[in-house]
Amino acid sequence: MSGNTPLKFFSGRATRYLAEQIAARLGTELGKSSVQLYSDGEFQPSFEESVRGCSVFIIQSTFPPAENLMELLLMIDAAKRASAYKVVAVIPYFGYARQDRKDKPRVSIGAKLVADLLMAAGVDRVMTMDLHAEQIQGFFNVPVDHIFASALFVPYIKNLNLENLVIASPDMGGTKRANAYARFLNSEMVICYKQRKKANVIGEMTVIGDVKDRNVIILDDMVDTAGTLTKAANMMMEQGARSVRACATHPILSGNAYENISNSALTELVVTDSIPIKQPHEKIHVISVAGLLADIIQKVYNYQSISSSFLQ
Fold this sequence. Notes:
Layout: E1 7-11, H1 16-25, E2 33-37, E3 43-47, E4 55-59, H2 67-81, E5 86-91, H3 110-121, E6 125-129, E7 144-147, H4 150-160, E8 165-169, H5 175-185, E9 188-198, E10 201-208, E11 215-223, H6 227-238, E12 243-251, H7 257-262, E13 268-272, E14 284-287, H8 290-301
Parallel strand pairs: 1-4, 4-5, 5-6, 6-7, 8-9, 8-11, 11-12, 12-13, 13-14
Antiparallel strand pairs: 2-3, 9-10
Helix pairs in contact: 1-8
């Protein structure tokens, strides 16, 4: 890599598995850092090498527990106080992204608060993938590189060579994403219309469009309890679909997710390693984002356009 300033990579504890792959693809190693633990659970990250005048990339997804976010904030603060030239937070999975607006009275807008915390810590740039709501980019007063996993999923889907392919959105909010995939894959699109009783609980669901004798691929930004995906897959198979697969960028997989996937009509669930998989599963296929993130990082560091890396 070239550039005007020295480049160093560091990782929080939650995403070290991915950060090591990214650094290796860029022909370097992660910088030395440590975390001092206190008996009450408090912790203090520390850089064990100089970052003065360096462009520092800190890689950490902010999935639960909240310590992952706090560790990222502390590392950004430490880098700024150690006179780093620029600090870039690489956040493959941006936690609290589902709290992007007030959907009822007397609730917080968690995504905006997280953005404020990152900027207060001193971040100069943010890289993230498939935000639950694209408007979160506007919560920041620093550049945000919003990366799409479509650069990984579209080639994978093409290699399946499926006949009568149809792309499905699991809800109304995902229609833009599904439409982009349908355009690149030259396929039709259907939409699942769902009504939630409460968070993570689906009330009623219907399919807008024809899935009979089709090979369906459902697209989503994340899979949490897998309730939506599995209910949609089962319903589509009942309506005559040949097969149903799903692609979801962030494998949160909480609660009864693994059980739901096992008992569903899903042929396959394709995810990335933005969040580590808790356990292997015969229906879950993981595609690494290390190469894609390494490419974006290199282009940003060299002041090159990154739009060519996007399929959306």
